[in-house]
Amino acid sequence: MRTVTALFDDYDDASNAVSELERAGIPSSDISIVASNADRRHGEDSKAAEGAGTGAGIGAIVGGAGGLLTGLGMMAIPGVGPVVAAGWLAATAVGAAGGAVAGGATGGLIGAMTRSGVSEEDANVYAEGVRRGGTLVTARVEDDFVPEAEAILRRSNWVDPFERRSAYGQEGWTRFDETSRPYAAEDVEQERNRYRRSAL
């Protein structure tokens, strides 16, 4: 088994990627999604919002279209803020948060990604991308299915991690910092608009 991972600026693109992975035969239990909820698109869980500085477990269920997306729950990740999440990566990140900061290189979201085979460099970009309003999709797939799974993610408007790392670096960013202030809804909208404009 190998892990394929992609960041999306738009939740709908990520949701489409999850649905397409499921249609291709990847079990929901092998797919994860972690999406920023700074704009409260998925509702609001005051406990998750309060826990944004310390990490909070998965909370209230917020419905989805089907498959993995029906099991979205709310949680908070230090430095990222409130998110909705489902799947094995979210469960691993929450479990690791008990012994380490949820953004730290050895625990939480970044630790869960690196333990599953994502480079630490990319994991930092992905965590920062979620902090800035993005959505992360991760799937565990058989080795021979990796090219097809990656093609599904690319067709769904994934973010190239090298290009995004370069864009963040031009602002002086070097790595995800769990002590950073989570983005507010207006910050997320500004960030999304910046990449919408650059794509035109």
TrEMBL record:
Residues 6-71 form the General stress protein 17M-like domain. InterPro entries: GSP17M-like_dom (IPR025889), Low_temp-induced_all0457 (IPR052948). It comes from the Bacteria. This is General stress protein 17M-like domain-containing protein. It comes from Agrobacterium genomosp. 2 str. CFBP 5494.
